[in-house]
Amino acid sequence: MSFADITRGKIYYEDTGWGVGDDREVVLFFNGWSISARYWIPVIDRLSSQYRCLSFDQSGTGRTVCSPSCLSFSVEGFADEASELLVRLGLLGSRKLHIVGHSMGGMIATEICNRHPESLVSATIVNCGIFDDELLKSFHHVLVGGMIDVAMLFKWVFLFEPFKSLFIDRAISRPIDQKYRTVFVEDFVTSDTRAATAVGKFAIDPQIIGRYTSEAVKICAPLLCVVGMADRTIPPEGMQTLYNRRIEQSAFLTRQARFDHAGHLPMLEVLPEFELALRSHFCAASRLIG
Could you tell me the domains of the chain? Predict the structure, then answer.
């Protein structure tokens, strides 16, 4: 458990590194909307014997403390804080980063990949697809219909049944450990309302999604597209579109891991299969720079 002082405040992070001389490749995890890094713990426990794993709570979530001057809850702002953390830990400059982004975190992961291509071994995007005009309009309509502002104003109701179960069960298709059902609700309810509202809105902004659509295809490293086909949070068709477009437009290795019976949280719903997909991708990418 560690904190780093950065421009936006005190960022909480967990690093499984062995200290000076740990030259292993690094897996950096980016979290979804209003979620702390705690949900990555099961996969980190499985990977950390071989890889140095780094997770952190983005501004507005978990144990990270925002400074009063932290006004920019944007893709660029979140990427700035991640870059500062990487600089503090000396992880930029040598090619050793495997970057994994989930949901909204896929947008920030993409920004980091394209800022620091010289440090990148591979990228993985989990359930954060790209959308053509008609699907984008539908997706935008569904989320706006959810009334983000109202949801944040009354978010405390999700501490109680039946709202708690409704909140979690919409995100998953297979059972997850009760501990993580509680984690997700706690993280959402205790998240900074300003940050959560801003992120919820930029994640559905057509201009921002359009930029992400372009930038994700351009990532200059092998890319793994992970999709839970039973995802009811972000339409899985978007991940298929990203995979297809990368195959058409990028010379870099592009792979897909489809989990037919998983929802929005494959790292918890199908943990062994998710771990295997990551390991296979990391190994394939490492061999290419070998």
Answer: 2-289 (3.40.50.1820)
